[in-house]
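Entry 14. Structure prediction run on the chain below.
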Amino acid sequence: MSEENKALVDRLTQAFNDGNLDEIDELVAPNFVGHNPLSPEDIQGPEGLKGFFAAFRAAMPDIHHPHWTLIAEGDLVAIHMPIEGTFTNELMGIPPNGKKVVVWMTNIWRAAEGKLVEWWISMDTLGLMQQLGVIPPMG
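Output returned:
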């Protein structure tokens, strides 16, 4: 089961990189819930996840994960990876600054019956906000 679940997360990550967000419909369950510190409410269902990913792709059209590490046990898959992109369009009301953004994150995905059903994200949110120009660098 762990290998199949890793394959789901790997496919989702590659779909994000390729901008193929329609693949989310095949990988994510209708009752999916995403817990993300950048979202004021939980992300609900495949459409909610597509919308969240699309907002980041719109703000940074070259956004991608250059590499990732997957670890799985039972119904959980952990993925550790950077995300990189150039901030050229508005994101969450933040005006673009044209700078390259690089942020490390760790995600935990839960799978059931061959689909992803839950997501927890932990990322360097402070670093992201500094790179987006919302918070000044420390020091």
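Residues 2-132 form a domain with the Nuclear Transport Factor 2; Chain: A, fold (CATH 3.10.450.50).
Filed with the rest of this week's runs.
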